[in-house]
Specification:
It is a single chain. The chain is of the alpha+beta class and about 850 residues long. It has 37 helices and 19 strands. Strands 13, 14, 15, 16, 17, 18 and 19 form a seven-stranded mixed beta sheet that branches. A four-stranded antiparallel beta sheet has the order 1-2-4-3, covered by helices on one side. A three-stranded antiparallel beta sheet has the order 5-7-8. Strand 11 and strand 12 form a beta hairpin. The protein is globular and about 90 Å long.
Length: about 850
Amino acid sequence: MGEVYRARDAKLDRDVAIKVLPQHLTADADALARFEREAKAVAALSHPNILAIFDFGTHEGQTYAVTELLEGETLRGRLDAGAIPQHQAVNWAQQIARGLAAAHSKGVIHRDLKPENVFVTRDGHVKILDFGLAKRAEQVTEQTNAPTGSGHTAPGTVMGTVGYMSPEQVRGLPVDHRSDIFSFGAVLYELLSGRKAFKKDTASDTIASIMRDEPPELSGSGRPIPVALDHIVRHCLEKDRENRFGTASDVAFALSEASGATSAVTSGSQVVAAAPPPRRKSGVWIAAAVVAIAALAVLLLLRRPHAGGAAAGGAKRVAVLPFENLGASEDDYFADGIADQVRGKLTSVPGIVVIARGSSTPYKKTTKTSQEIAKELSASYLLTATVRWEKGGGKNRVQVNPELVEILSEGPPASKWQQSFDASLTDVFQVQSDIATKVAQALGTTLGAGEQRQLAEKPTQNLAAYDAYLKGEQVSGAMTNTDPPTLRKSLGLYEQAVALDPGFAEGWARVSVASSLLYRNGVPTPELADRSLKAAEKSLSLAPNRPEPYHALGNYQRLVKQDYAAAREQYAKGLRLAPNDINNLGSAVGAEQSSGMWDAALEHARAAERLDPRSLGAARRVGLALIRLRRYAEARQALDRALTISPSNLLAILSKTMAFLGEGNLAGARAFLETSTRSVEPTALVAFVANYQDLGWVLTEEQQQLLLRLTPDAFDGDRTAWAICLTQGYALKGDAANVRVHAEEARKANEEQLRDAPNDAQRRAFLGLSLAYLGRKDEAIREGLRAVEMQPISSDAVNGPYLQHQLARIYMLTGEPEKAIDRIEGFLKVPYYVSPGWLKIDPNFDPLRNNPRFQKLVAGAK
C-alpha cells in the first residue's frame, strides 16, 4: 500500500527511506488511517530488530513516513535464492522472535508476519517491517472468543496473508500475540525446510489446511532437523492458541537453548538418534478427544483394585518399596535414588500401575510383613532390594539385590524374579534400567521398541550431577516438602546438578518446579519466575517424550502465570505419556479447581489417592477439595488420614481446623489446635495459622499472645506476612496504636514486593487491607477492586473467592457494609471454604452483626 524512495536527510546528513501513500489511496479514509496507525505503532517501538521510524506527516496532500534505510533484501529473497544454513536460520529466527517480543510488550500485534515482511541486511541483521496491519492487543473472552474491547478490525474481518495466518485469524476471530507466534512458526518451518508449511493449490485449500492439517514432517525436507527445533515449530503451530508458546520471549529462549544443544536429528529415513517427535493432533476436535480419552484412561487405570490386587483393566499394581541401604547411613539417599529411578521407569510401562513414591517411602525400615504392606497399598506385587555402595581402596562399585514377590490370597508371598547386580558406579544407570526391564518382563508385559527405549534411558552421564540431584530429592522429599527454607536448599542442589550436566532433563525439571513453588510460597520475584520458565523449557527441549517437563511447565503456568487452562493442557500432555504419573495427576487437581471444574478435580484427587494411598499429599488434596465444596465432615475424614501419616503437617492441621470452622464449631477448632501443639513447634504453628487463610482469630489466648511476640523470621523473612498478621492480631485486641504501626509496615513491604510482582492480585488485596486498617478508604477500596478485577472468580475459582472475601473485609473496615454484603453473597454462591456457619463465629464480620441482610445469611447456618 506504499511506495518507498531512497532519500537524503540533509539536516542530519544521513540516508533514509521515505514510504509514501500513493495519491489514489490518500482519499481512502481506511487506507489513510491504517498508514497512520502503522507509523504510530512502529514509532512506539524501539528495538534493533524492528524497522525504526524517524518522522511522519502530510505535506501538500502527500502522506509519508521517514524510516531508516536498510541495505539488503527481504527474507523471501533469501529463501528464493536457495537453502539457508541451519545455524543462520536459527540466528535469524531468534532475532525475529526478539523483535516480536518487543512489539508484544508494547501491546502491538503485527498480524502479517511473513518472509516478505522480514528484512535481512547485508551484515545478517534482521528487521521486521510493515506493521500496516498491526493493532493494539485486546482481551478475548475464552468461552466466546468475543472481544472485550474495541480493536481496529471488526470480528469476522479476515486480514493477513494466506499461508501465514493463524486458525483464529482465518476465521475472522479477534487475535492476540499468539497469532503472531503461529505466523512465526510458519516462517520458521520455511526457514528450516525450504518449504511452506501450508502451501496448497488455492487460497481456500490453504485456509482449510491451516484449520485442519499438520504440516509435513520436517524430516521429509531431506535436511537434518534437530528434534528440539522440530518441537519448537510444532509448539508454535498448535491449532489451539492456548497450547502455543505463551510469549515470543519464550520462543526466543527455546531457540537459544536448541541452538546450543547437541540434539538428536533425523536425516531422511535414517534415524541418527532415537527420540520420538512430540505427539500431534489432527485438529482442535481431536485435541479435545485426546484429552478426554487420556482422562478416561487415568480413571480406568486408577479405580480401586478388585480382590487380589489387580487394577481395573487387568493392570497389575506394583509397589516399589524403599531399597535397603547396607552401607553407611549417609548413603541412604543413594539407595532411595535407585528405587525412585526404577519406580519412575516402571510408571511409563503400559499394563502396570505403580504405587506412588509418597505411599511407598513410609515403609522404609518397616517391621510390617509383606502381606500387611500389600493390603494397605492394595498391591499385588512388591519390589524390594538391598543396596551396598563400596567406596575407597580403589573400589567404587554398587551391589544391588532386587526381588519381586507376588502376594497371594493364601500362603506366603511367591518370588517372581530375583537377580544380583554387581557393577562399577559408572554403570549404575544400566543396573536401574535392567531391574525395571526384568520386573516388567516378570509381570508378563510385552515391551515394544518405545518402551524398551524409555527403560534404557539414562537420566545423566555425569555421576556428580546425579549425586547432587539425589541429595536435592532427599532434602525436598521429592518435592513434598514445600516450605521456603527447604525449597531454597533443595533448589541449590538441583542447580548444582544442572551446572555439572546442562543436559540433565530431570534436573532442569526440578529446578523449574522448585522455583515455581518458591515463587508461590515465598516472596515472588521476576528472577524466580524467569528461572522457572527457562528451566522448564530447557527440560522440554532435552526430553519431550518424558512427563517431567510437562509437569514443570504446568506448574509454571499454574503457580506463576496463574493460567489454569494452559496448566491443564501441560498436565494432560504429561499424562498422555505416563497415564499414572502422580505428579501430573495431582497437580491437575489444582488446575481443575482453579478452573471451576470441581467434580473433575475431586474425582482426580480421589484417583490420585488410590494410586498413592499412604501419601500425605494425596489425602490432604482430597480434604481440601471437600472443604471447598463445604462437605466438612467428609473433609475431616480425609484429613484424619493425612494426619495419621504425618501428625505434624501444618497444612493438614490448618485444613482440619477450617473444616471445624465451616461447621461453625469454633470450640472444636481451638481444641484441635491445642492438641496439635504436642506434635508441632508452637511458633511454627502460630505463624502458619495466622498467615494462611488469615486465621489468627482462631488461636487461643495464649497462642495469640505468642503471635504478637513473633518477628519476621517466623514468617521466613516475609515482612508483608508478618506485618499484616500482627495488624490483625492487634485489631482483635482493640490496640489501635499498634494496628497503625504494623499496618504501615505491611503497606510499605507490600508496595516494595509489588514493584517486582505488579500483577500479584493477592498482594494487591493485602495492600488494600493494610490501607483500610490505616483509614485510607479510597486507596484501600481501589486496591481491593484492582485485585478482584485482576483475578475474578470466572478466571480463578480458588483465589477469586478469596480476593472477594478480602474486598468484603476492606469494605467493612472502611464503613461500607452493604457493599461488603454484596461480596459475601457472591462468594457464598460458589465453592469456597467460608459458610454461613463460618460467618456466625468469625469476629472479622462483627461490623455486620446488626445488619438484616447479614443476619439472613447467618441464618442459613445449619
